[in-house]
């Protein structure tokens, strides 16, 4: 009985090997090299909460655009025909993100998880990616821990991090004469980390940070905080707030009279959707880092036009980042002819990439940080806005080498 | 010294806003005995309505100050007739649950319709700029909010204490049996008073539009501060709500200036202290709770 079973197993194995040798895994076929005969891209993000507009459902559409572009490019030559895009809401909660990621990898058949805003949620997903040995391409979370102390072989950070935000905005503003800073920040992890990154960058560029003022989170009334921030006569007030708190602070900054006294406002993290929702008048003149702007050049604009047809809005850098991550993942799969994570990673590592989103991009092998050129932007005056969503003037380009910390400094030791 | 004066002025400006926003909460509790958890959501609706009216009908802030409270009064009447009235004779817990659920529904509806990032709002021209008196700076708009709030608070207080309607309402709620015996139709006053409280919340929302983020969630955190205000002042006491509003504004301003991390906690420390010394709040009447 035992030997019969062995015999059957061996012949089945031979048959499989023979079949695959006869072109089973080649282009045009979706044979045994793809689990379940299909490729599954899962977008895990905030579908209903504060980051819904910045990324959310429209990032799912961006990923679908990448799939469509990939299929149009390769047609019959695509190594896999059946490509599925799924999406799940993590509500910005790390525990939910953790469970959902595990479900997606195990039962959802996900080959890759994309997006995942909120640093704590992203770190939970990175851990699941490591345990399941499947890919995680993070686009919307900013913590440097993803490619630093908590890095792993299966996790890539595609768009930006707090170091980029601090070095682009902090360094450039300081070099341009904004030497004396006061920083107001929400008193939780993101705000504290941003304040540290900014302080380092400002000091390195020859500036000083006079005062750092923590505020409760969330908070509506910033009047006295702003008076306090202005009392030391800084050149620049840096704010590390986001979402509703940022809007409260900007509205009250505009009323405080600090602007007229010549105090500049620099924002740590802002998305084009924030400007769109609050109106360009409120933010006019504000400096901030934008890893990618839809109207930064003709190529970006052409893609933004397509995106607008799909969604009715202009893309944020997170939308474009998701498109790029999905597209480069598909290109890597096409190159290696399988959804095997280790082989896809080997193809991605060290690759130099230029696409709609990544300019002068490099997928660093050492820490899996995807570095690329970024922009320091200033919000236009209402009179200079020529069309809807035309909100940013690019003050300067930040080369990839300046915007991102060198891999040696990341603190990442890659263990599979 | 001028810094202290500056913080005091900012505290009073913020306090007047808290007083006005808490007023409706105090009126509704004082008259109906309903702990209105939806007050933050009504405040949010006022602000959202203001932004939408400006966007769609070009109605400026001045018009919104008139139109939105009227709309919110109507909305309050509908809510009272459809929902609140059925639970009035039950344990107050039921109304607390009802209004809490109502908050969730309203917030979610606004999110569905207007998204999560907030609505834009521009201040009318005349209220921009600042007043600078001897180094103490106050934005014109804040000054406007301060004066407007004080005026409304005084009006409401006069209405409740000096007019016939006010006296009937107070009699009907303090001694309903006696009022009935004197031929006052107590039930008749419940609906308009609830609508009035909702209108006051909406009015605070209108004032908030130019200097606060207009999002579906804007009332959540704010409502918690308002509850602290009415508890400090004494649940249901109009004078208490106003005095406590200013007190909370000042505590917040000086907290922000001298102990930034604890600015919001200080409000609740104040609340705890008041409850320890006077369990019914500064102006609360012990017998009102029986």
TrEMBL record, chain A:
Keywords per UniProt: Signal
Family note: Belongs to the leucine-binding protein family.
Provenance organism: Paractinoplanes brasiliensis
Signal peptide: 1-21
Protein name listed in UniProt: Amino acid/amide ABC transporter substrate-binding protein (HAAT family)
Gene3D superfamilies per record: 3.40.50.2300
Span of domain Leucine-binding protein: 41-380
From TrEMBL, chain B:
Primary residence: membrane
Transmembrane regions: 12-31, 37-54, 61-87, 93-110, 141-160, 189-211, 223-251, 257-277
Matching Pfam families: BPD_transp_2
Chain segments annotated as coiled-coil in the UniProt record: none
Family named by the database record: Belongs to the binding-protein-dependent transport system permease family. LivHM subfamily.
Subcellular location: Cell membrane
InterPro entries associated with the record: ABC_transp_permease, BCAA_transport_permease
GO terms (BP aspect): amino acid transport
Membrane topology recorded in Swiss-Prot or TrEMBL: Multi-pass membrane protein
Keyword Transmembrane helix: yes
GO molecular function, one term: transmembrane transporter activity
Name the record gives this protein: Amino acid/amide ABC transporter membrane protein 1 (HAAT family)
Record-level GO cellular component terms: plasma membrane
Alphabetic keyword roster: Amino-acid transport, Cell membrane, Membrane, Transmembrane, Transmembrane helix, Transport
């Amino acid at each position: 009985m035992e030997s019969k079973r062995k015999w059957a197993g061996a012949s089945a194995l031979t048959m499989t090997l023979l079949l695959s040798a006869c072109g089973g895994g080649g282009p045009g076929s979706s044979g045994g090299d793809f689990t379940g005969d299909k490729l599954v891209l899962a977008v895990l993000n905030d579908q209903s909460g504060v980051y819904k507009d910045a990324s959310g459902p429209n990032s799912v559409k961006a990923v679908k655009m990448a799939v469509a572009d990939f299929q149009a490019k390769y047609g019959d030559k695509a190594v896999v025909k059946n490509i599925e895009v799924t999406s799940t809401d993590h509500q910005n909660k790390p525990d939910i993100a953790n469970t959902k990621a595990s479900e997606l990898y195990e039962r959802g058949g996900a080959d890759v998880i994309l997006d995942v805003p909120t640093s704590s949620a992203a770190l939970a997903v990175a851990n699941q990616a490591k345990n399941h040995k499947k890919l995680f391409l993070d686009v919307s979370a900013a913590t440097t821990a993803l490619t630093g102390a908590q890095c792993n072989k299966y996790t890539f950070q595609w768009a930006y991090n707090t170091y980029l935000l601090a070095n682009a905005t902090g360094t450039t503003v300081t070099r341009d004469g904004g030497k004396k800073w006061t920083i107001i920040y929400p008193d939780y992890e993101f705000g504290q980390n941003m304040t540290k990154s900014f302080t380092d960058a400002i000091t390195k560029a020859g500036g000083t940070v006079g005062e750092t003022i923590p505020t409760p989170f969330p908070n509506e009334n910033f009047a006295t905080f702003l008076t306090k921030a202005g009392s030391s006569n800084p050149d620049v007030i840096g704010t590390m707030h986001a979402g509703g708190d940022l809007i409260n602070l900007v509205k009250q900054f505009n009323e405080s009279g600090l602007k007229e006294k010549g105090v500049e406002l620099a924002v740590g993290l802002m998305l084009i959707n924030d400007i769109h929702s609050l109106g360009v008048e409120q933010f006019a003149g504000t400096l901030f880092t934008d890893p990618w702007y839809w109207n930064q050049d003709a190529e970006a604009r052409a893609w933004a036009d397509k995106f607008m047809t799909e969604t009715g809005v202009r893309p944020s850098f997170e939308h474009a980042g998701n498109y790029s991550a999905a597209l480069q993942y598909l290109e890597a799969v096409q190159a290696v002819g399988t959804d095997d994570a280790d082989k896809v990673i080997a193809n991605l590592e060290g690759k130099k990439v230029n696409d709609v989103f990544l300019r002068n991009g490099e997928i660093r092998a050492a820490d899996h940080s995807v570095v690329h050129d970024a922009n320091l932007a200033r919000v236009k005056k209402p009179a200079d806005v020529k069309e809807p969503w035309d909100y940013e003037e690019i003050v300067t380009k930040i080369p990839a080498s300046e915007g991102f910390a060198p891999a040696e400094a990341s603190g990442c030791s890659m263990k599979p | 010294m001028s810094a202290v004066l500056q913080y005091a002025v900012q505290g009073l400006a913020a306090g007047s806003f808290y007083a006005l926003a808490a007023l409706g909460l105090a009126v509704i509790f004082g008259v109906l005995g309903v702990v209105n958890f939806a007050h933050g959501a009504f405040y949010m609706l006022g602000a959202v309505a203001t932004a939408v009216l400006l966007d769609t009908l070009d109605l400026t802030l001045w018009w919104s100050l008139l139109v939105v409270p009227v709309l919110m009064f109507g909305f309050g009447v509908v809510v009272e007739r459809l929902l609140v009235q059925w639970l009035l004779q039950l344990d107050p817990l039921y109304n607390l649950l009802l209004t809490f659920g109502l908050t969730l529904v309203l917030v979610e509806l606004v999110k569905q319709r207007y998204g999560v990032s907030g609505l834009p709002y521009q201040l009318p021209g005349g209220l921009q700029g600042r007043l600078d008196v001897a180094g103490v700076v106050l934005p014109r708009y804040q000054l406007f909010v301060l004066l407007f709030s004080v005026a409304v608070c005084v009006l409401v207080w006069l209405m409740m204490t000096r007019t016939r309607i006010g006296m009937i309402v107070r009699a009907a709620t303090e001694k309903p049996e006696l009022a009935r015996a004197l031929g006052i139709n107590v039930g008749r006053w419940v609906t308009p008073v609830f609508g009035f409280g909702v209108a006051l919340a909406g009015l605070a929302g209108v004032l908030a539009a130019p200097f606060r983020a207009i999002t579906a969630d804007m009332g959540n955190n704010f409502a918690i501060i308002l509850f602290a205000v009415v508890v400090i002042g004494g649940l249901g006491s109009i004078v208490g709500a106003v005095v406590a509003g200013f007190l909370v504004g000042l505590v917040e301003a000086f907290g922000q200036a001298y102990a930034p991390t604890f600015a919001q906690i200080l409000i609740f420390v104040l609340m705890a202290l008041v409850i320890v010394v006077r369990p019914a709040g500064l102006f609360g009447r012990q017998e009102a709770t029986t």
